[in-house]
Design brief:
mainly beta, five-stranded antiparallel beta sheet, two-stranded antiparallel sheet
Length: 248
Amino acid sequence: MNNFGYTGTQDPASGSGEYGALSFLVNQILAQIQTITLVKIVAVTNNGGVSPVGFVDVQPLVNQVDGAGNAIPHGVVFGLPYFRLQGGSNAIILDPQVGDIGMCGFSSRDVSSVKASKAQSNPGSSRTFDWADGLYFGGMLNGTPVQYVAFSSSGIDIVSPTRIRMSAPEIDLQATNVVGITAGTQITNSAPAIEIDGQMTQGEGPQGGTAAMQGPLNVVNDVVAQGKSVHNHTHTAQGATAVTTPPN
């Protein structure tokens, strides 16, 4: 009973004749039908690892209101499946995190049997459009990301504050014009064999410096240093007019 003498969701119009009473009855029935609402994640079973799609516990963000306008928060809804972009064994793993805000849609029938078996099943009960049969779709009203893939008219940016790792039996980088690699400290290539098919130049940028190699170094043709050929150069003995023959 509220301060106006009405119970629960009743308001003054609920008792204003047959229409008011009928409208109240219809609204009570419709209130049992859940469609879509905004929720916040309070718990999640997965943490970004390679694993099957998990479940979330959510807090509905739109409060219930009684006939006198008093807010009545919803309780937490437990164990709802969440959406992952996946086809067969191919997926983008981006699990929800506690605090995320997203959309929750509610099934027309009880989906508990399908959740348990992951197969075609009869509804677990006669309930319809119930909170317990929600499905979570994330990514609404959230803040600015610090790790992301951004698509724009100027191209695609992949940004991480920690690490980007690609792993596959074969990785190909292809560009019509230029492939650029820039590092603040060091670039490391490690493999039993490294093949470079193209002309190599050190360049004249601020990163230029002395090149060092542990060796041995085998050169098929020739090496030229300051205009002198290693393979074809000669020496003149001091005080003599004769010159040596080039190295063999």
